[in-house]
Amino acid sequence: MKLTEKEIETLRELQYINFLDRCLKKNKVQIIGNRYGFVRGIPHELANDMFILAMNKIDTLSDIETLKRLKFICEYFISQKSNRRKSYDSPRSKTKVIIDKFTIYESQLQQIESQLKNC
Prior knowledge:
Elements: H1 5-24, H2 28-33, H3 44-55, H4 64-79, H5 83-89, H6 101-118
Helix pairs in contact: 4-6
């Protein structure tokens, strides 16, 4: 059975999302300490993108394609917040999370969007 181009592209997207889900479970120390091995089988392009996010080196980038990939990664990670975590961000919440990985990805997303406007 031979796969069509559309099926192959869908398979690649699912595989990429699977890698993103596995990357979300890792912390900065794991990403920085083992740049290409923190997730088994991760593509080098995604590993480099995660390293850029972990090191917060967004300001040094000028490549629009890389910035768009980083924007997609941040938006995907922010979309994975649990309902309980989302409730902490509501204005009526008495519990405030000061800094966690989701607030970091939100601030990095703002940096990326400003970089894209400047390019």
